[in-house]
Every structure is written in structure tokens, then in C-alpha cells.
Amino acid sequence: MKKWMKVSMLLLLTAILIVPLAACGKDEMQNVRIAEVTRSIFYAPQYVALEKGFFEEEGLKVELTTTAGGDKTMTALLSDSADVALVGSETSIYVSAQGSNDPVINFAQLTQTDGTFLVSRNKIDNFSWDMLKGKTFLGQRKGGMPQMAGEFVLKKHGIDPHADMDLIQNIDYANIAPAFASGTGEFVQLFEPTASVFEKEGKGYIVASFGTESGHVPYTTFMTKQSYIDENKETVEKFTRAIYKAQQWVETHSAKETAETIQGYFDNTELDIIEMVVDRYKSQGSFATDPILDTEEWENLQNIMDEAGELPKRIEHDTLVNTEIAEGVMK
């Protein structure tokens, strides 16, 4: 009897151990490390994908890190500290121009316009772009998409940013807003939610949108190395499907619902400001509603870079953009 009980206990313990192991094998998650260039409401669909469990539905466990700057983000990707980078598509062109043997491929677009706004120190009821002539303009870092898109828009309105205004470009991204708040410049190019916060606090007034003026462009895109796609094609497909689900969710839900979903990523920003920013980005079509980066957007990007004198060489759309993955998950 005792021997039978020992055998029964042994079988029971074996079953207890085997079941969790089997479950682990069945529900094993694939880890994906994202390096985002900055933390921004501009990237709302990404945070929706995380909060709504769209990545988990695809069997992905995502680790998100903010790397603060395009150069640092690309370094993280190239050094294998990240699997996927969320950054401006211009960075993939810069890497390609340096002769990389493992090109960085844009596979899922997140935003499709510039995300900055022109903020005036003084309230202007009837703004016109020529009001910037002769004024001090606090711009973005040279060579980055905000600066290039900003200069593209200024030239579109007949303003030479280097001749018709006092252009300041030597202030780090993190210090641009504080510099303006402390009295530097009469106009400044700012991202949200800073632009709306300044307006609410009376520190500045939004007078124009660079996103509306510059047209569709692959401003922020998920990209990875070609070798990663070759070795993890199914993972990249699952990742893209999760992003597409989030893009559709943001498109079909109110700005308030989106703001409430992503609020945890912006602890220092009030909910009404987040909602206002989401609504502003939605109304001007900044959030891409699908992950496809098309040829027209790619050419517009290179035209903007060329106009700013930052395009090392023209690169064909198919060389650095993979639309097959996005097209496949949308079917």
C-alpha cells in the first residue's frame, strides 16, 4: 500500500511539473526590443498597441526604450541593442550613404506628416508667414527632419531661413523649449504637447502647423536591419499586424478614448492636453492609418532633404522600403 502511494505521489508530482512546462512551450512569447527616438504623443498608435495588448495577441513581448535622438536610436539598432527602431526615415538614408552591408529597412510607417508647430511669443490674430522676416527664429537641430521640414515650409512661403531671419540652431533639442520660455526668440518650432502647454500657460501661441504645410512624408517609421527581417520574418509580420490594429483603433476611436489609453506614458501631462494634442494630430492626418510607406511619400522626403542640402544621394524606394510585409498583414 505504501509503495502504491509513493508511486501515485511520484506520478502526481511529475504531472504537476509537466503541465506548466507544456504551457510555457505553447504560450512562449517572442521578445522584441524597440528603441524610440523620443517619448511623444505623436506616437500614440504605438502606445495603444502596447496598452490594448495588440502585441501580446500576436505572441510578442515588447520592451520599449526611449533613446533620445536619431543618432542614438540608430546606434542602438546597428549595435544590436535594439531589434526595431522608431525614428525618422532620413536616418536609414544616412546609414545607406555610409555604405552599410546590412541596410536598415523601413517596414511600417507610424506618422505621415511633420509633427511640429510654429509658436509665436505674442498672440497673432491674422498670421502670415512673411511676419517671420527679420525676426529671431528658434529652430530645430540641423540635419533632423523637424529642421529640414521647417526650412522646406519657410522656403515654400518665400522665406530664406538663413538670410531673411535670425535663425538659431545651436540649442539641443531638450533645451529648445526652455530657451524660448526664458526669452530667446520671437518664434519657435515645437513638438506637442509642449506647444499646447505653452499656449495654455500663456508662454506662446500656436500660429501654424508645419505638418499641414509640408505634406505627407514618412516622418517616423519602424525600421530594422535586413538581416533581422531575413531571420525573423514572422516576428516582423506579427509586429506590423499589431501596429496596423492600433492604427485602425486610433482612427475609429475618439481623441478622448485614445488620450485615456495612453495617459500612463505621459505622467506629467494633463489628460485634457493629451486629448487636445491627439485631436490636433488626427485632424491634420498626422497618424498613418496603415503601415504602408508609399513611393510618393518617399520622394517627398528626399525632396525635403535635398532642399535642405542634407540628401547624400537619391535612393530608390524599393532599396530601403519593404511594403510587402505591410501589404500582407492588411489582407
Tag the structure with descriptive keywords.
five-stranded mixed β-sheet; 48% helix; D-Maltodextrin-Binding Protein, domain 2; single chain; alpha/beta; 331 residues; globular
The separation of the N and C termini measures 63 Å
Largest sheet strand order: 2-1-3-10-4
| Integer-rounded radius of gyration | 23 Å
- What name is given to the CATH topology of the largest domain? D-Maltodextrin-Binding Protein, domain 2
Number of helices: 16
Level of helix content?
40-55%
- Based on CA inertia axes, which overall geometry fits? globular
CATH-level-4 superfamily name of the largest domain: Periplasmic binding protein-like II
Given as residue ranges, the uncertain stretches (5+ residues, pLDDT < 50) are 1-26
Oligomer class: single chain
| Count of individual domains | 2
Would you count the extended β strands for me?
10
CATH architecture of the largest domain: 3-Layer(aba) Sandwich
The major beta sheet can be summarized as: 5 strands, mixed
Structural class: alpha/beta
CATH class descriptor name of the largest domain: Alpha Beta
Mean pLDDT: 91
Strand content: 15-25%
Along the chain, the helix and strand elements come as: HEHHEHEHEEEHEHEHEHEHHHHHHH
